[in-house]
Design a protein that fits this description.
Helix content is 52%, strand content 5%. By secondary structure, the chain is mainly α.
Length: 516
């Protein structure tokens, strides 16, 4: 066999080829080693803390000193420019878009004002400015409890912790936070949703800061502490993006935030839970039906979809990984995945951007078409029920029809209130709406028989609710008065809250560290 040296002597060009090949390999290995060392050095520098603070530090900018890339991306949640076909981060007056909503929520705060939610940076401003929280001033209380602050700010776990220490008992401290009316903690809750809501200050691991989710797991003999990191990338979102209600039976005098998961997380299981305890959020002003208001069961519906079944977490799509200056980190610009398809959908799907977006819109179009048909049926049922009461119907006559209205609207709202339900779980969304339509038809059939028994044998006149203003006038709202009061509240009360908060936060102590 001819040796390598002899081959080189016979073919000198072969030696040069081997030499050049060796040089290329050595060069590439050198680049790799340099890159690894550089990334390690960057990682040490990037995550070397510059300030020391406690777990209950509510100011996001303080956390941001240690994690500037994440903080800078978080600040982008203030941007309201992105708008998709149905949602996005833009402010949208949903009652103006769909005046039927006013009638569906007659007698409840949502009929006053309901807007498309903006990014996390707007959480505090949005709850202050919404008409639902009223204009508490001059001794007048808000119509909403302190519980409504729960998901709005990292000040919430701070205040809860203070009350727990004050009471010497976890449940009593949390219940005390929920107690009272919304304006009582206006000066305390000032920082928008942020770092302390989801992270451990010492390790930066994901953590659950809201008691309701932990308590819901405990009641089902499930230990949330055993959740994997990927599960936590859903559960930190599920602290707020879930169905909930105010339980006034748990601790006397406290509207205790509770997740209705004891019997399961499907729309039927939660409905049964509410029905068995005869719970209702309000009595409808027109139909007098005992109503349920779905909050935003995003986590529950997402769990029913194909992405959850494939192990995808909320953060994979709404907080995708990104790179900056050679650093890979999780973007904290929480926004629709359609805002940056290349970093979200196309990580797994190889289709073109326009095809992926079209696929999303197709699912949304079909579910929303069905949802709108159900919506019209329920509005008609409320109006027809009102007519029956006006003609002298009895509670015994109306009971079954009103329960059908309750169940139909619960299913409509379960899909309507969930962010992204038509995409997260289109099959489940369609199933829920179909059962809602069945309940709505049953309600209207029963009402037609009641009306006939009362001597009314012709269609009930449908009101003119073609605009938000007309719909609100129809259900008896004095919008000029409500808006004027809110404007005065924002002008006179909120500045005092902010001044008091600024004085308190000036006393907070943080420790600057010397970075190497």
């Amino acid at each position: 066999m001819t040796s390598l040296s002899e081959k080189v002597k016979q073919k000198p060009w072969l030696g040069w080829l081997l030499f050049l090949g060796s040089m290329v390999i050595v060069f590439l290995l050198g680049l790799l080693a340099s890159s690894v060392m550089e990334r390690r050095a960057e990682a040490v520098f990037a995550y070397e803390p510059s300030v020391e603070h406690g777990q209950f530090e509510p100011r996001n900018e303080v956390w941001g000193e240690n994690f500037p890339r994440e903080y800078q991306s978080f600040l982008k949640t203030a941007d309201t420019s992105f708008k998709s076909k149905y949602n996005g981060s833009a402010w949208i007056d949903m009652l103006e878009e769909d005046p039927r909503l006013v009638v569906l929520w007659a007698g409840y705060g949502f009929s006053k004002e309901y807007n498309q939610s903006r990014g996390h940076m707007h959480a505090i401003d949005d709850i202050r400015e919404i008409l639902r929280t009223g204009a508490p001033m001059d001794g007048k209380e808000s119509p909403m409890p302190n519980t409504c602050w729960t998901c709005k700010s990292p000040d919430v776990p701070r205040v809860m912790n203070e009350l727990i220490e004050e009471e010497g008992d976890f449940t009593k401290g949390v219940a005390k936070f929920y107690s009272g009316t919304w304006e009582e903690r206006g000066h305390q809750i000032v920082n928008p949703i942020g770092c302390a809501d989801c992270h451990d200050a010492e390790t930066m691991n994901l953590r659950i800061s809201r008691p309701a989710l932990i308590e819901a797991f405990n009641r089902r003999d499930m230990n949330i502490e055993e959740a994997s990191h990927q599960d936590m990338r859903k559960l930190v979102c599920a602290q707020c993006h879930v169905e909930y209600y105010f339980n006034k039976q748990k601790v006397k005098g406290s509207p205790y935030l509770t997740l209705p998961w004891d019997d399961g997380q499907t729309v039927e299981e939660m409905e049964e839970y509410y029905d068995n305890m005869q719970f209702s959020d309000w009595t409808h002003k027109l139909s007098k039906a005992p109503m349920l208001k779905a909050q935003h069961p995003d986590y529950e519906i997402f769990q029913m979809g194909i992405h959850a079944q494939r192990g995808v977490a909320c953060a994979d799509c709404h907080m995708p990984y990104t790179s900056e200056g050679g650093q890979k980190f999780t973007s904290h610009h929480v926004v629709s995945p359609l805002a940056h398809v290349s970093k979200t959908c196309q990580v797994c799907h190889r289709e073109e951007t326009e095809d992926l977006v079209a696929s999303v819109y197709e699912r949304q179009d079909k579910i929303i078409e069905t949802r709108d048909k159900l919506e019209k049926l329920i509005v008609s049922a409320h109006v027809e029920a009102k007519k029956a009461w006006d003609l002298g119907a009895t509670e015994e006559q109306m009971q079954d029809a009103l329960m059908d209205i309750r169940h139909a609207q619960w299913r409509w709202d379960y899909i309507a209130a969930s962010h992204g339900a038509p995409f997260h779980a289109p099959i489940e969304s369609g199933r829920v709406l179909a059962k809602g339509m069945s309940a709505a038809h049953d309600a209207r059939l029963k009402l037609s028989r009641i009306l006939a028994d009362l001597g009314h044998n012709k269609p009930v006149e449908y009101p003119d609710i073609s605009t938000k203003a007309k719909a609100q006038e129809y259900i008896g709202l004095d919008m000029e008065k409500l808006n004027n009061e809110k404007e005065e509240f924002l002008k006179t009360v909120v500045p005092k809250w902010l001044e008091k908060a600024e004085q308190r936060e000036a006393q907070y102590k943080t420790k600057k560290l010397n970075r190497p």
